[in-house]
Amino acid sequence: MAEEIVAREGGYVNDPDDPGGATKHGVTIHTMRRLGLDLTGDGRVDAADVRRLSRAQAVEIFLQHYFMSPRIAELPEALHATVFDMYVNAGGNAVKILQRLLGEMGEVVAVDGKIGPQTIGAAARAFAQAPDHMVDAYGIARRNYYFRLADRRPASRKYARTRAGGKGGWIRRAEEFISPRYHLSAAEFAERVAAWG
């Protein structure tokens, strides 16, 4: 899963509209600073360190700090890939999306962005009740999160919609984890983003 995320994320970018800042293989400069990854050995973590990050290092960071440490591995296995991918993309918001979904499914769970015994138990119960729908429901909630983010932050719309007006990277990425029958058609997508101008 981590290898797939690295492949999806791509190489080095430093987009001024991206709050993540300098990023390589999906690992942001903020993550590297938090982990103290001074790859150049000059006593500070900056864009030069991000540029030096290897694919193997990114995979290890994701496995340790975005899958094992946040306890995604303790969720139902079917949810691993989509929650893990979203955690790399949005941190604790990936868990909040799941927690809100669990609440909508009748589970009592705090929406705090942390996976603990309450979230693990609620996810297991909800998955047992809807094993054929839970992954799609999470993916749709994830797609809606991206839409709401772009609604509120015009600078982020380029990640949700291409210049040509089609589905942007955020939406395509969410839909990779949703059954094709729940993908938005081109017309449905155009209608959803029409207010963006």
Q: Mind explaining what this structure looks like?
A:
The chain is globular. With 197 residues, it is mostly helical. The chain contains 11 helices and 2 strands. Among the domains are: 1-69, no CATH class; 135-196, no CATH class. The N and C termini lie far apart (36 Å). Residues 1-24 are annotated as: Disordered.
Biggest β-sheet: count, sense, barrel?
2 strands, antiparallel
Q: Please give the number of β-strands.
A: 2
Listing every helix as H and every strand as E from the N terminus to the C terminus, the arrangement reads: HEEHHHHHHHHHH
Structural class by SSE content: mainly alpha
What is the typical, i.e. mean, pLDDT? Answer: 95
Could you give the distance between the termini? 36 Å
Number of helices: 11
> DSSP strand (E) fraction?
under 5%
Radius of gyration: 17 Å
Shape annotation = globular
The helical percent reads 55-70%
Question: Going across the major beta sheet, what is the strand order?
Answer: 1-2
Which segments are poorly predicted (pLDDT under 50) over 5 or more consecutive residues?
A: none
Break the fold down into its secondary structure elements and pairings:
Elements: H1 2-9, E1 23-24, E2 27-28, H2 29-35, H3 47-52, H4 55-68, H5 80-90, H6 92-104, H7 117-129, H8 134-152, H9 157-160, H10 169-175, H11 186-193
Domain TtsA-like Glycoside hydrolase family: 3-91
Region (Disordered): 1-24
Domain Peptidoglycan binding: 93-175
